[in-house]
């Protein structure tokens, strides 16, 4: 799995805003102070926060005491929304989540459905984790679905095929 720098930095920055909101919900956070705390360049944060603002995840205030605040409660903002706001897909392999092909002539590789399913599970998990979960360092455990009967019938516990 590969999460882009944009995605990682966006989650870090939003987590920082959530912590600051706990300390003083009324005070906007400047990108300069956020960047200093998280070691992210100001120009990079400006790009990210433009996208986060357009997605409705943050609000901005201009002026000498301006900056950014979360647009909602940290418990209502999921990590998946942050990743999507900065337009960064999480790629498990070159197989995309779409039903289209990942090989030449729009055909699908033999493992396409496997990787597409994994990608859906990753996004499902990120959609279940909120900023509040992250800053409380208590993200929910990932839900691992039960194996369906098809797979249980195919493989024995010893690893031998029936």
Structure write-up:
By secondary structure, the protein is mainly alpha-helical. 22% of the residues are buried. The chain contains seven helices and two strands. 46% of the residues lie in helices and 5% in strands. α1 crosses α2, α1 crosses α3 and α1 crosses α4.
Q: What is the structure about, briefly put?
A:
This protein has helices at 5-23, 31-38, 42-54, 79-85, 112-128, 131-135, 149-154; strands at 58-61, 67-70. The protein is mainly alpha-helical and 162 residues long. A hairpin with a 5-residue loop joins strand 1 and strand 2.
In spatial order, strands of the major sheet run 1-2
Number of helical regions = 7
Q: How many β-strand stretches? A: 2
**Oligomer description:** single chain
Q: Which strand-content bin applies to the residues?
A: under 5%
Low-confidence stretches: 150-162
Radius of gyration: 20 Å
Largest sheet: 2 strands, antiparallel
Order of helices and strands: HHHEEHHHH
- Helical residue percent? 40-55%
Query: Could you give the distance between the termini?
Result: 32 Å
Q: Which structural class should the secondary elements be placed in?
A: mainly alpha
Which of globular, elongated, flat, extended, rod-shaped describes the shape? elongated
Mean pLDDT: 83
List the helices and strands and how they pair.
Layout: H1 5-23, H2 31-38, H3 42-54, E1 58-61, E2 67-70, H4 79-85, H5 112-128, H6 131-135, H7 149-154
Antiparallel strand pairs: 1-2
Helix pairs in contact: 1-2, 1-3, 1-4
């Amino acid at each position: 799995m590969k999460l882009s720098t944009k995605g990682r930095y966006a989650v870090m920055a939003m987590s920082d805003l959530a912590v600051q909101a706990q300390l003083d919900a009324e005070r906007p956070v400047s990108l300069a102070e956020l960047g200093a705390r998280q070691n992210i360049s100001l120009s990079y944060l400006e790009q990210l926060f433009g996208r986060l603002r357009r997605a409705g995840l943050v609000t901005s205030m201009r002026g000498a005491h301006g900056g950014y605040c979360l647009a909602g409660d940290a418990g209502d903002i999921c990590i998946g929304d942050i990743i999507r706001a900065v337009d960064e897909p999480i790629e498990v392999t070159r197989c995309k989540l779409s039903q289209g092909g990942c090989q030449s002539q729009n055909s699908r590789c033999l493992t396409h459905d496997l990787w597409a399913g994994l990608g859906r599970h990753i996004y499902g998990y990120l959609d279940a984790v909120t900023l509040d979960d992250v800053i409380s360092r208590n993200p929910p455990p990932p839900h691992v679905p039960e194996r369906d009967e098809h797979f249980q019938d195919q493989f024995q516990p010893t690893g031998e095929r029936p």
